[in-house]
Amino acid sequence: MNDANSVRNGPQPPAPGGVLWSLVGDIRTLLTLPAALTMQVAHPAVGAGVDEHSVFRTDPWGRGERSLVSLQQWVYGGEDAAEEGRRLRRLHKTIQGTDAHGRTYHALTPAHYAWVHATGYPVFRHGQRYLGRPFTEAQERQLYAEWLQVGRVLGINDRDMPQTIEEFWPYYRKMLDNEIEETAVVRELISTDRPVPPPDRGPRWLRLLLRFAWPVILPRFLRFRRFVTIGLMPPDARRAIGLEWTDAQERRLRRFGRVVRVVVPVLPERLRFMPMARRARRAARASLGTKRV
Prior knowledge:
Blueprint: H1 3-8, H2 19-23, H3 29-41, H4 44-53, H5 60-76, H6 80-92, E1 96-98, E2 104-106, H7 110-118, H8 120-131, H9 137-153, H10 165-178, H11 184-189, H12 204-231, H13 235-241, H14 247-263, H15 269-272, H16 275-288
Helix pairs in contact: 3-8, 3-12, 5-6
């Protein structure tokens, strides 16, 4: 079997028009990703892998961009999605070591790999309550089914992920109760006093401007990052990690969410959706002969 046939025969991403189709490419997803990442690295094995093998300290913007492109590929990549899943597994094959408790880990251990993926569902669900219109029960079930399909694209076996929402929540609570903690990487991701280099993406004039203004921008950026990371994390996960969240912060988050809910839906598609999502949506409309997908 040649490579092209192998790609075609691999797991396919969710079909156009589903919940993830509108959710993942929307710019509001950028606000929820830090919460998911922080929940992931709150697992000691995952945190150790990121601590020892990731370039998130030396190349945070490049690392973030690559992760975002990969996420988009899982949903909008069509036949290329399965190859992206295989690429990620190849990338993680050599990631292994010892966590902070002296336990050996490997990035592709099914329980660890599944937890990284599982965090997306509760974060998407919780973030939607602030940044969009809360999901109906039917939409929540569809979201979970589509997220399971994305997991198959990533090479996660069905036996390693709860297959229904009813099975997911006991698994999730067990992980929060027995596995999750405030790891060293969690502390770095919510820190407001650690150095972060200025962005090195975008037009040259913008990079020069940001480099000049970075000493003023950085403290505000770090405070905002901490705010949305903790605020858009499900409260039970927040408590399990030991992250403080006050009533005043909750009120601020709700005010922020109201602004986002009003502004983002009226933006033109070129501003509301990220590039890969825009291209996929145009292609789907052309294929289906519809105005909206």
